[in-house]
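WARN no homologs supplied; continuing
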Amino acid sequence: MKFEITHLSSVKKELRIELPAERVTRSFNRFSNEIARKVQLPGFRPGKAPLALVRRYYQRDIYERVLRHLSLEAINEAITAAQLQVVGEPVVRDLRLDDQSPFVLRLEVDVFPEFTVGPLEGLEGVKTITPVTDADVDRMLDNLRAATAKLEEVTDGSPAQPNDLVLVALEGFVLEDGATAPDEGRPPTIPRRLESVEIGGENTRREFDEAVRGKVVGDRVEVEIQYPAEGAPKVALPRLPVVDLSGKRVRFRLTVEKILRRVLPPLDDAWAQEKAGLDLASLRRRVRADLEASLEKRATESLDNQLVDQLIARTGVEAPESLVEEQLSARLRDWVRHLESQGNSLPADSELQKLKEALRPRVETDVKRVLILEQVAREAGVKVTEEDLSRAIADIAARANLSPETVRARLTREDNLNTLRLQLRTQKALDLIRNAARVEIKTAAPSDMPTPEKLVSFPPKNQ
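OK structure emitted
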């Protein structure tokens, strides 16, 4: 085998590989004989057809088997000989194969970049501490109460208000171009069905929200919606074809059937005991501690990103395209799964492509950060000991109220023990960077503080 390497960049190489003609001929003979032993051609007993005839009948099959076999061997041998750390799948740019000539293959591969971080001194960063106020704790407790509120039907004739859940009977008519109302006697495109509208809800469509807000049971309203050409919802109807609303103008008729109002539980020891097995004062302390821990984690992550990004700029490390594409695809898959789990319509391919390109700069930075941290750990000879692993498993077990043995068994069974080791190795690299840096501590002004309820989710005691 002969090969040549062309360095396209620090993370992309071109390989030109050539296998000798005699090796190609042996491969053609091998697969021709394998097929000849198994097939039966007209006029011949099984496995007795002449090899030349088998090659004529199964020319394409033999060629594809030889190509696959020689390609894998050539690529693996060349990568091993060149000592390349390849990521992702090679991209074949050109090949030449016939049974009497050398096999020539030209391909591009992404590789881990070869670079040095060097001394960590000279890094500077700002860690912004956000204090937790009594008002923050009160807001968090109000959110927890809202999560445990009970829905009670409104029977006193009062109108629908924010946070109410309004049950409506809905039917929809697709309007023709220029039409201001549906044709009389025409059946609805979307037959009558019951839907719930949460007034002020994050996932509530604005037109429906405005239509039912302030209405009482029995009120009837109409809403007209012009859907975009792409990304509009598809309505699944029982025993009927799916209705695609893309580009359609739809007139909806809604009748308010029922209004359900959330009734908050009293903020007292009984509620706190039911919610978390604590009295109210202890619950307040726990909420405050959780908020402080979340804000501390957020401040540390921001500091770490500042410092690692300085190392990215210092080293000029590049992100291999294969790793970037892999991360982009994973994030889009997770987002689509989330939309499906929420019952939302899926975006069009063009919208996914726009989102992918919008995410690309952030993902490229994330990949570079991973590469920097791995190189820092490598240069510092960072090791994760069994003691480190046991301590981390004990922490996980304590938070989950499980035994360390149970957690270790689960991590082993799910093949996540090495993932935990990698996380610990990364954390040690971050500690080295942070300890070498000059860090300024600041306290956030009230206007700079993030919304506390976005930082903490307090689970019920039985979850």
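Residues 452-463 have pLDDT under 50 and may be disordered.
OK
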